[in-house]
Amino acid sequence: MITTIEELSLGAWPAFEEQVYDGWILRFAEGYTKRANSVNPLYPSTISLDKKIAHCEIVYSQKGLPPVFKLTGESSPPVLDRALAERGYGKLDETSVRTVSLGNGYPAGHDIDYYSRVCDEWVMSFARCSGIGEANTVETLTRILGLIQEETIFAYIKRQDRIAACGLGVLDRGYLGCFDIVVDTAYRGMGYGRRIMDGLLAQGAKRGAATAYLQVVMGNLPAEELYDSLGFQEMYRYWYRKK
Question: Alpha-carbon distance 141 to 179, whole Å?
């Protein structure tokens, strides 16, 4: 199940370039987010571990990026996490991956609207709500979102003619991935994040998804409490290793 969710996540957050190297997936997206710029050791391998790590370090250096590894309890080979730690790779951003069944139904919300594809209004609103300021970063985000091949749900709530909260849903193989749930600072603590999630879950169930999944960085207590209240339960954790 871990591999399935990891594969779904790759499709839901595309990189500009991917290389498959002996069971490891190397991803590159000009440095925007570790998800799209890391080594994903998903499948069994045969090449020696020293050689594989050295290869990844060289390739990422050639791209002008630091080598970053995204790991789970099922990363291959099992000794990889320890080997990276011994080479000076620090552990960061431990993240809980959670799932919930969509069989119980969720209120759709009367004030939520949706775009089926990425658009400038949603991207610029997400950038404002999440504090992304650099124009080149917003451009990179737009390109990544435009590369998603699966069905997408760009949810948003408007107040006074501007988006106050938004979130992204990606449908694939009977799963709904929920990403980028953000609320404008002026509207936080008022239940907008919950309403965006309710809307995404309702739309996912309506469009045939049986299970929803999401990722929350450990220590983000408001988000953890929200997802707990929606019935999400932890399936596994992932983390990054970076020098």
Answer: 13
Sequence-separated (6 or more) residues with CB below 8 Å from residue 54: none
CA 210 to chain centroid, in Å, comes to 19
d(CA 46, CA 1) in angstroms, rounded, equals 23
E strand intervals along the chain: 17-21, 24-28, 39-41, 68-72, 90-101, 112-115, 151-159, 162-172, 175-183, 211-217, 233-242
At 125, which amino acid appears? Answer: S
| Bond into 77 cis (ω within 30) | yes
Helix and strand counts by DSSP (H, E) for the chain: 7, 11
Tokens in use for 178? 């929920």
Q: 111: closest CA among 223, 201, 199?
A: 199
Q: What is the mean pLDDT of residues 69-75?
A: 97
147: nearest Cα among 27, 63, 3, 67: 27
CB atoms < 10 A from the CB of 53, how many? Answer: 19
Q: Write the CB contacts of 169 (distance below 8 Å, at least 6 apart in sequence).
A: 152, 153, 155, 176, 177, 178, 179, 200, 203, 204
- Per residue in 178-221, pLDDT (tens digit) is 999 999 999 999 999 999 999 999 999 999 999 999 999 999 99
Report residue 168 as tokens. 């992204």
Neighbours of 1 (CB within 10 A): 10
Q: Is the pLDDT of residue 120 over 80?
A: yes
User: What pLDDT was estimated at residue 30?
Assistant: 94
